[in-house]
Structures are given as structure tokens and as C-alpha cells.
Amino acid sequence: MSSVSKNFVVDIWSDYVCPWCWVAKRRFENALASFPYKDSVQVNVRAYRLAPNHVAESMVGALKRKLGSPVSAVSMMSAVKQYGQSSGLDYRFETMLFGDTADAHVLVKAVEDQAVKKDLVEALYEQSTTQGKSLFDRKSLEAIAKSVGVSDESVLLAWSSQDLRFQMQEDERAAAQFGSGVPFFVFNNSFSVSGAQPQEAFLQALNQMYLESTGEDESFSGQVCGLDGCN
């Protein structure tokens, strides 16, 4: 198979309190692992807040309010938990929190080392979703960051830099051009895939990205997922 000199870029908008985003992240990663040109793909983590300026509360309470009934909330949580388990993810809604994740997004942006950044993103999902750790307390965020090797300098930068907060807001403004809802994936700034798609759909999108780079094209559309599921 011939080599590809062109670098590919995938931009991913997501939020750490989005129930579907961790599932989508894992499915995309599994698809990318089987993509022949994975070493030529640059993945950019983009910020998106489902609840800007929202005081932290229990995830269960937030879902009941969002969906309008306890029955709907239980049904949605059961579905996410099931899909999570199929991807090796442990969702514990009873200890999860929901709110404004600005500090978590800014903390990720403060990390320059791409390997450490990747580990931090995964840790934010795992620690908040499985371990019930808060993403709304800076001491809690610092502990999560240091557990994956984030430097003290990066943590201090996150809490002091207005430019990083501006970058977060720029990500959100860019997302608004495409619509609303996360997770949201943009491939080579050419086409998008929305929602917690199956692994096969993400691989199809990666292959389309490659085909477009070689002058071939195939159409692809995805679902939109929000806090209450996929439409």
C-alpha cells in the first residue's frame, strides 16, 4: 500500500459531562487504530460546554430535568450504560456530576505535550464518569492532571491565562457554525459526523477522508446526539 504524504486532521468537539461523548471517543479511537493511515492523522480536541455558567449538580437530577421525567432519565442512562459496557467503559450515573466544564477544557488546552494531553482527556472522562470525581473543583482537577503527568507549570497556566479561555470560546463559536450538540467530528475541515456513531461509521468517515485526498468522493452523514441521546 502506497504511503500518504498529506497529513489528515480530525477536529473533535465534546464535553466531559456529555453522557454520549466518552462512548463516541472510544469508538472513534478504535476505528482510528484500524485505519491504515492512522499515523498521518492529527486529532485536535475542541472545547464545547453543554452547561455554561451552570452550577454543578448531580447528573441524575440534571437528566430528570432535561428529559422531563424520571422514567425517561432512567431509560436514557440504561442505554448509555449498556453502550458504554460494550466499549469497556464503566458509567456510574449515581455519582456523576453535571455543570460548567470551563476549567477542565482550559486545563486540557494548557498542556502542550500531545501524549500527556491525550492521557488527560481520557482521565477526565474516567475519573468523573467512573470514579465520581468533580470537574468543578480546581483541587480535584489538579489531582486528576498530576495523576497523568501534567506539569505544575501547565496547571498554573490554565488558571491564569485569559488567552486559553479565549481559545475555548473560539472553539464554541466555531462549533456554532455547524449546529448544536456533541460529540461532533470534522474530518479535514471537509465534512462532519455527529453523535456516538458505531465504530464502523467512524472508519467509513476516515476512509472517505482518504478518498477525498486522492480525488475520489463518497457521501456520508451522521446522527446528531445531545444530552438526551441521538436524533
Question: Care to describe what's here?
Answer:
Residues 9-206 form the DSBA-like thioredoxin domain. InterPro entries: DSBA-like_thioredoxin_dom (IPR001853), Thioredoxin-like_sf (IPR036249). GO terms for molecular function: oxidoreductase activity. Strand 7 and strand 8 form a beta hairpin. The strands form three sheets. The protein has a four-stranded mixed beta sheet with strand order 2-1-5-6. With 231 residues, the chain is an alpha+beta fold. Helices cover 48% and strands 13% of the residues. Mean pLDDT is 91; it is low at 1-5 and 217-231. The longest helix is centred in the middle third of the chain and has 17 residues, at 70-86. It has helices spanning 21-33, 59-67, 70-86, 102-109, 114-129, 138-147, 152-160, 162-176, 199-213, and strands spanning 8-14, 41-47, 57-58, 97-98, 184-187, 191-194, 225-226, 229-230.
List keywords for this structure.
disordered C terminus, alpha+beta, Thioredoxin-like_sf, oxidoreductase activity, DSBA-like thioredoxin domain-containing protein, two-stranded antiparallel sheet, 8 strands, Glutaredoxin, 231 residues
Structural class: alpha+beta
How many discrete domains?
Answer: 1
Annotated CATH architecture: 3-Layer(aba) Sandwich
CATH superfamily: Glutaredoxin
Strands of the widest sheet, in order across it, are 2-1-5-6
Average pLDDT level: 91
CATH class: Alpha Beta
Distance between the termini: 38 Å
List the helices and strands and how they pair.
Blueprint: E1 8-14, H1 21-33, E2 41-47, E3 57-58, H2 59-67, H3 70-86, E4 97-98, H4 102-109, H5 114-129, H6 138-147, H7 152-160, H8 162-176, E5 184-187, E6 191-194, H9 199-213, E7 225-226, E8 229-230
Parallel strand pairs: 1-2
Antiparallel strand pairs: 1-5, 3-4, 5-6, 7-8
